[in-house]
Write a structure and sequence with these properties.
The protein is α+β, with helices and mostly antiparallel strands. The chain contains 7 helices and 7 strands; from the N terminus they run αααααββααβββββ. Strands 1, 2, 3, 4, 5, 6 and 7 form a 7-stranded mixed beta sheet that branches. α2 packs antiparallel against α3. The longest helix has 23 residues.
Length: 196
């Protein structure tokens, strides 16, 4: 499905809302069959657009939901749920050379005991449409901000993440490349301690 239908920008909704209000005003003033049919046609098209947008995820929306699910799994310290959204293997880019990591290596990494030890809260935000790069119909890269902070003293460091999701053979989008950067300077690599 084209993304302008399954993931329309707000301007599309504004256009259809203006058309709906305009045709409603004309139909109310004229009160004839032609104006009523025009209003109903616009209302049906607006409803169809809304339903398609609501129930069919674009690749961008699917990638954002996966990133949010991964953050929720990290927040609850659940490696099994976290790796459900990760391709096997995936590539991690940080300050050093890129590392190829399997799902089993990720599940058994020292990252999870560290999250438990410091009682870390993980949050992600700022999923901007302008920070999306569509590589092909089965691959999309999104950028967003993330932060892990101790629940005890609420100290933590925000970082900027570029995550590439690829459609797998089962039809799901999974994380295939993960890049971490400084939150202010999106060109300066940043390493997450004990990850992966």
């Amino acid at each position: 499905m084209p993304t302008f239908i399954s993931d329309p920008v707000p301007a599309v909704y504004l256009f259809w809302a203006a058309a709906l209000i305009g045709t409603a005003a004309v139909a109310a003033q004229r009160q004839d069959r032609k104006s009523g049919v025009t209003f109903l046609s616009v209302a049906v098209l607006f409803a169809v657009l809304f339903l398609l947008d609501r129930f069919i995820d674009s690749p961008r929306e699917e990638a954002v939901k996966n990133a949010q699910a991964m953050a929720a799994a990290a927040d609850t310290n659940n490696p099994d749920e976290f790796v459900k959204h990760v391709a096997d293997p995936f590539v991690y880019y940080s300050e050093g050379p890129p590392r190829t990591v399997t799902r089993s290596e990720l599940k058994s990494s020292q990252f999870w005991p560290m999250l438990r030890q410091f009682n870390v809260h993980v949050a992600v935000w700022s999923f901007s449409r302008g920070d999306v790069k569509v590589i092909d119909e089965n691959t999309i890269e999104i950028g967003f901000l993330a932060k892990g902070e101790s629940r005890n003293d609420m100290k933590g460091v925000p970082l900027y993440i570029r995550a590439t999701y690829k459609r797998q053979s089962d039809g799901t989008m999974k994380l295939s490349e993960f890049r971490t950067f400084d939150a202010v300077n999106h060109e300066k690599p940043f390493t997450i301690p004990n990850f992966p």
